[in-house]
Amino acid sequence: MSRGGSRKGSGRKYKFGEPLAEIGVPSSISNDLIVVIEYLWEKGIRGKELIDTLRSAEFRKVRKYDYAVSAGTHSTSSVGGDSMNIDYEEIDLCEELINESNKTVILPVMGDSMIGIGIYPGDWLIVELINPLYQKPKEQEIVIVSVDDETLVKRYSREKGEVVLVSENENHEPIRRSEGAIYISGIVKSAIRRNLSKRLPNG
Question: Which domains does the chain have, with CATH numbers?
Fold first, then answer.
């Protein structure tokens, strides 16, 4: 009786639902490349979207120059002429601004209670989500907090057993609550200004 040969449907089960192609990539990155593709595939990023995602890494790089522009102080460029001819480095803004993407969200701002530290209406806040049962904000950190069915951005502080939520605008009084009366969902890591064409208050 013959024991060899192949049977339809037998053999390797394909992880991606189809046969794998052999492609020429450096062996030093082949394993990491497979891990990345598997990760994206499991998140539902497939086909053209997956290809676009891999290509997008090239366009996330931007040039950061060592030369600082003057915003009021007198300074001169040591290189003279076109400052864009000096050294620069390419940086990935996602890597610079976001530590853990699965714990990070962007929230738009409305209102003027935080303009004292440069957070204006229309800005985007990059927020790292926390579990308040296990993580507590540090003193003076900027937090996203729910108070009386309203979600706010405030500076966190504690005083005499109470949580004090401080605005950065003298027209807004501090909010004082017991710790159990508020819910802190995130810590603001940075802000992105998006309305430079608009005149800012007192600007």
Answer: 27-96 (no CATH), 101-192 (2.10.109.10)
